[in-house]
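Posting this for the archive.
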Amino acid sequence: MALLYLIRHARVQMRGDVAERWPLSERGRLEAGTLARQDFWREVELIFSSPEPKALQTAEPAARRWCVPLVTVDCLRELRRPRLLPDYQTAVARFFANPESSVAGCEPAAQVAERITRCLKELVAAHPEQTLAVVSHGLALTLFLAQLKDRWPTLAEWSAAPFAGLAVVDTITWHLVKDWSSVCETT
């Protein structure tokens, strides 16, 4: 069975109002280090990451420790947004309730869901029978997992994706093998 390890980036340092540029916080760097020491990496043959610093900085320690190639892929980004949203949880609830509409100028949830689903399926198709890891973002990965169930996610499902968290998908059946869990004792 080929597996796809889905990893949400570790905690961030919010610097400025452009979330796409945020690096990991000190706590996030500790989480990334803890994540990198997990045994599941023994199985991983290739790591794909969003190009956003928070995702790359989460993936890099594992890539170094386990000597696994790391490739950045633009379609693994979080939803595109023009600025920091003051009440992100309320905005996420609106994304899920109205997936075809833009909320506060952001990329609509339906577009994010289509992009991340197409991206992950293409990556798996290009690397058949390989175990892959993907480091991306909470909203995008939550949308992907809901798309596997042919529905929209709930706010509770998004909230359940921990920072530096892990979910596992069987790439033959496209079924969830393991739902989100935290692999960091600091979380």
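The beta strands are 3-8, 46-49, 70-72, 132-136, 165-170, 175-182. The first strand starts at residue 3 and ends at 8.
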